[in-house]
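Re: the request from the purification team.
They wanted to know what the chain is likely to look like in 3D before they choose a buffer screen. I agreed to run a prediction and write the result into the notebook, where they can find it.
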Amino acid sequence: MRLKTFSASIVVGLTAAMVGCGGLPAVSERASTTDWAIVNGKDDLGDPATVYVSLGGGSCTGTLISPQVVLTAQHCTEGVSTGAIEIFFGNDADGPGTWIQAVHYAENPQGQPGGPGDLALITLQSPGPTPPIPISLANPATLIGHDVHIVGFGVTDENGSDSGKKRHGFTTLIDSEPGLIYTNVKPSSTCYGDSGGPTFINLNGQDYVMAATSFGTAECGYGEDASARTDDAASWINSYIAAHDPNGGSAPGCGPDGKCAAGCGEPDPDCPCAADGLCTSACGDVAKDPDCAGCGQDGTCRTDCPAVDDDCCTTNGECFQACGSLDADCAGGSTSSSVTVGGGATSGAGGSPGGEDPNGAGGSSNHANRAGGALLWTGCSAAPGSVGGEAWLFGLLGLAGASRAIRSRR
């Protein structure tokens, strides 16, 4: 896989052993000059909570998730001093907007740069000028096939040098595993400089940050894009906000406190219909609970719904005892299946009967398999105006150049 890193560097930076977004020389280039934006996206004049993360010689993207905390990728901040980090709110880092200095950051203690849990949190010197976007608590395995919205300040193609302008596009959630989600690269995908940027999902009319861009399994616009999940790291994220954001208040609890908490064993009474990975009767209306998708009449039998799924009671040669007289198969001595109704946490992608949750603690990871065992790319970015392609060669002559960090998976 290839980390989504694209960074500016000068003579010494190109010859030194650098980490994070500080810049490593490109070792392969692609001849394509296809004109992609975020790779087949459009300039973005909205999404004000999506920010440009300047790292002092390189850049990434991030999202304001509480009044004073920005979420980005762990591989972006790796080896970078806090004083070098500045956050820009606006649409073009060379244009009007608001710059705020970072005063602290932390990397996900359970994360892996360019891999599962590739997340970092940055505390701002002052609150951001726009409302934050909450993280998603939903298990992505239950949302496979949903459209997602990607945003970033990265370049528009493999050899691009046009970072610094906010762009966005749409694609589809195709898979998940512990710590990561995978999205299609059509119609849009991410590229260098988009690392740390949001994968938004809209649930019941509310946008959530489902993940932060991490890497691609092939060059920009090809293969699959991978992003680090927020639901897996929700406890760490909420604890950090409680400790470092004076405007964020105390961390939410699982009881009635006016805040929606993650990782509870049962739905938080403050948000029983939230995307929390739990499908129970607490919501009162399965149509309003994204975790209960498939519990209505959609042609698929889901066996862990709070009430019997009508699709399980069809005539199919198998008796579902929970259906009782509603299932004609139960009258003729057909094979009987025991169905537990009103279970707790959802399991299996899309709630398929007997499905194994690929995000469970015992789930195997496809992370290395997808990448063929080699790290291909991440998405930090050159400062606006830097030249791309093979310009890193000119850095050896003392000129600022673009480079891609291409590193092995750690």
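For the purification team: The radius of gyration is 23 Å.
Please add any questions underneath this entry.
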